[in-house]
Structure formats: C-alpha cells, structure tokens
Design a protein that fits this description.
Number of domains: 1
CATH superfamily: MetI-like
Distance between the termini: 33 Å
Structural class: mainly alpha
Pfam families: BPD_transp_1 (PF00528)
Number of helices: 13
Protein name: Sulfate transport system permease protein CysT
CATH architecture: Orthogonal Bundle
Subcellular location: Cell membrane
CATH class: Mainly Alpha
Shape: globular
Subunit structure: The complex is composed of two ATP-binding proteins (CysA), two transmembrane proteins (CysT and CysW) and a solute-binding protein (CysP).
CATH topology: MetI-like fold
Oligomer: single chain
Number of strands: 0
Membrane topology: Multi-pass membrane protein
Radius of gyration: 23 Å
Largest sheet: none
Amino acid sequence: MAFKQHSVLPGFNLALGYTLLYLSVIVLIPLAALILKSTQMPVAQFWHTISDPRVVASYQLTFGASLIAALLNLFGGLLIAWVLVRYQFFGKRFIDAMVDLPFALPTAVAGISLATIYAPNGWVGQLFAPFDIKIAFTRIGVVIALTFVTLPFVVRTVQPVLEDLEKELEEAAASLGATRWQVFGKVILPTLLPALLTGFALAFARAIGEYGSVIFIAGNMPFVSEITPLMIISKLEQYDYVGATAIAVVMLAVSFALLLVINGLQWWAAKRLGRRK
C-alpha cells in the first residue's frame, strides 16, 4: 500500500505565490520605480546626462577597476582556497575566518583602514613613497579597495568544489606520467573552471556597486578617481534626482546583464557536472 509523501514545504501554488510577492516587494517594485523615474527625463537630456565626459570617466574607472580587482581575486582567491583545503597548519581556522572579514566589516570602516595604511605616511604607503609611487587617493587605491571587498566571493565559491575534488584522479594522472602542470591543467582546472568563473562574475558585479570602502581611499578627483556610485550621490546632493536616476539606470542595465551571465555560468556548470540535462 502506497502512502502519499508530503513535502516539508508548502504546496507549489502557495510557495510560488509567496516567492513572487516577496520578489516584487523587495526587488521588482523598487527597480520599476527607478526606471519610471528616469522616463520623466527627455531622451536628449537622458543621453546628455549619461554621456557626460565626467560620468563616462567614472564608468571607465568603475568597470576597469572592477575588472582588475576580479582578475586579481581570480588568482589570489584560488591560491587561498587551495591552501585552506589542501594543507593542515597552525592558525588555519583563523585564516579561514579572515576570508569572511570583508563581508562582515562595514565598508566605511574598511575604506578608512585602507586609506590610513596606504596613505603616503601610512604603514604601507611610506614604503612606496621613496619611489614616488602613490597608492592612496589614486586609481591604484580604488583597485585595492575593490580587491579587498570582493575577495570572499572567489574563495567561498571555489573552496567547496576543491573539497569535493577526488585526489585519486590526481594520483592516477601522476602515476600515468603526467607532470604537475598537466595534472593541474587537465584534471583540476576543468573541474574548478565553472566555480572560478562564477566567483569572478560575482566579484565583478559586487565591485561595480561598491561605494563605502572606495570613497575614502580614492580621493574623488574628477576625471581621475571618481567612481559611478559617487556620481549618483553627487547628483542627489545637488537635488538632481532625475539625473541620478538616469545614471542609476545605466548601472542597473549593466548589473542585470551581469546577472544573466552569472546564471548562464551556473547553468553551464550544472550541465557540465551532469546535474542538469
């Protein structure tokens, strides 16, 4: 005699209705209001606002620095995840907890800390001062701040995949005569690649919207170290709400495109691992 097995979660209709309601209140309605606000501006004025040379310079810095920070974390995050998974050493749990620090630390506190140590008279900045290299209040400082806040995305994405990676495959490849680089390139990297790409995309998307940790170390000089979120805040401080909305819509469009890429990467990874047909 077969018994009907009840799910621990509510029925499909109730769960789907709650999901749509929650997403509408939290995500869709605010974003729709943003887009509707931007429609109050004539097309010519909208284009003039988003293509202003100062705003375009902020796009270039924001997306360029975000890309560099994500690439740095792509390699640095892989190395940290590898060390945490493959080696046992004193203080491992402490280092593992430090990875999440950028998540928990208020971004303004991170910005103040970074600006303090990378200033020309700071602990790190004074080491570069004799070579006439300035880190704080330059574009280099922006990259450092974005690298700091986006580090956990790559590490926490790659770490579980590394933990599930079977060492027997590496040992079998090595026993068949494969070199270390061949084992890494043909056995380890193909398995890690989906997680690496997802972590990279998440870090890049997070860096684009970062504000608090950057403004203290960037210096905020026009055409040099102004990020796009700062341009939005500047518009709001000038009571130019429609202009701020126009720039925000551009950021929204780019963020949405990145989300599509992330979802595509996740789908590709699931299909590659045989979890989806």
